[in-house]
Amino acid sequence: MTRPLFQTLYARLALGLFLLLVIVGGLFTVLSLYSVREYSAAVSQELNRDLASNLVSDRNLVTDGQINHSELKRLFDLYMSINPSIEIYLLDNDGRILSYSASPAKIKRKHVSLEPVHRLLENPDAYPLQGDDPRSHDRHKVFSVTQVPDAENPTGYLYVVLRGEEYDFAESMVHSDRLLQMGGGALAISLFVGLLAGLLFFRLLTRRLSRLTARVEAFEAGVKNAEDTDAAGDAGVPGDDVDYLSARFDQMAARIAGQLVLLKDKDHQRRQLVAQVSHDLRTPLASIQGYLETLGMKQQELSPDERRRFLNVALAETLRLSKLVDELFELAALDARERQPFAEPFMPAELLHDVVQKHRPKAEQAGVTLNIVTVQPAMVHADIAMTERVLDNLIGNAVDHSPAGAEVKLSVTADNCGVEICVRDAGEGIGQQDIDHVFDPFYQAPGASRSGHAGLGLAIARRMAELQQGRVSVESQPGEGAEFRFWLPLADSAAKESTEL
């Protein structure tokens, strides 16, 4: 599929380069003019920094310690014709303008800030230093200043603006012509050279991108063959980033099919999970509703024992529903890592004995014997509450899947890295096709009877083990029971790993 020229990367790069060159050229021209003006102002102030004091001494503006106003008036008239670029003002000690060499209509200020005046008098080399322009409300100009009649007994200042209104007018005329001649010419040349070089470079770059685009379109259309993928996917292919990108694309394309299969499988699991959750929530709710409706409709017909039995069944279903909802929230919190383990050293053998004692009444009621066959004392570094919950789930699962008269064997073994707690039941075992899914939420082997609900105990156990840097695994053969192994790191190794992290 051929794309319009102006929608291609080459055209956009060319347009971007053109705009960039125009902007850079314009900024360079503006900054150059600004720099020239600042430089010119600094030079003007440096050359004329003694102009005000020279005017006072050369023109006899001070007579017997007083300002000679008639001589000052002649000075104003003389310099308006000799050097119209400067403007002369007489200020008092507060900065008010007392006299000036201009038409009153041109004066916009009645007061001049003395802060730059004092700075220049204190440091004559602080240039360019700009002061207020009496002919503007907001403009500032370089100036020369001196105290009058003298520095020992000042009554005011002779304030000389070095680049006055006439200078600005002449400069604007000259700069307009120079800007068109110099700036326009330099901008045109830089645009032409830069654009030509950029277009050639972009053409070389985008030509290979165009080829890669064609290959992507071919892959999208389903006509990419395996030979092209293998040849271009060689990790050792020479070239630059574009060639490397092309090779990586081919490798990525080779994996997309497998990823799509995985996504479909995940989507199937998600749908199955939603269906199982809906079923396990609906069943106890329907049971509770049925019993309560029966109680409501036949309250007078039922005996006290029957009403009590109905209420007990409804209560049992409510407890079952509450447990399922709690497990769902707990699993969601573990998946979102909202619950973090509080690791501390402890003896798992002691905890195992406590958990076994807690489950012994339930096991005896089911006719199952809990037997700890091996115990190797060792210290682990884990969360006691989470570890106890994992053992609860594993032992409870073993009791539920063991027939009456069977024995559930438990053991604690240790090596140089960690401690492993084994729980072996005497149930029907797990088929090889189901072992990889045992820890999935609500998973139930095909054809298995659904007593109660599939539960979330093993899924919660695995999440809790992983959060503690441990793991839970299972080994089983059909008809030989299942052995669940819960491994936790030793206290020393876990502390060392945390320090390294």
What would you note in describing this structure?
- A hairpin with a 2-residue loop joins strand 1 (62-63) and strand 2 (66-67).
- Residues 223-235 and 449-453 have low confidence and may be disordered.
- Helices cover 56% and strands 15% of the residues.
- The chain has 13 helices and 14 strands.
- The chain has helices at residues 9-47, 51-58, 69-82, 115-122, 165-221, 226-232, 241-297, 304-335, 348-366, 384-400, 432-435, 457-467, 491-500, and strands at residues 62-63, 66-67, 87-92, 97-100, 130-132, 140-148, 156-161, 344-346, 369-375, 380-382, 407-414, 418-424, 471-476, 482-489.
- The chain has 501 residues and is α+β, with helices and mostly antiparallel strands.
- Helix 1 packs antiparallel against helix 5 (165-221), helix 7 runs antiparallel to helix 8 (304-335) and helix 9 packs parallel to helix 10.
- The two termini are 52 Å apart.
- It has a five-stranded antiparallel sheet, sandwiched between helices. A five-stranded mixed sheet has the order 9-11-12-14-13. A two-stranded antiparallel ribbon has the order 1-2.
- The chain folds into four domains: 5-36 and 172-218, no CATH class; 49-161, Beta-Lactamase (2-Layer Sandwich); 242-335, Signal transduction histidine kinase, dimerisation/phosphotransfer (DHp) domain (Helix Hairpins, Orthogonal Bundle); 344-500, Histidine kinase-like ATPase, C-terminal domain (Heat Shock Protein 90).
- The radius of gyration is 46 Å and the shape is elongated.
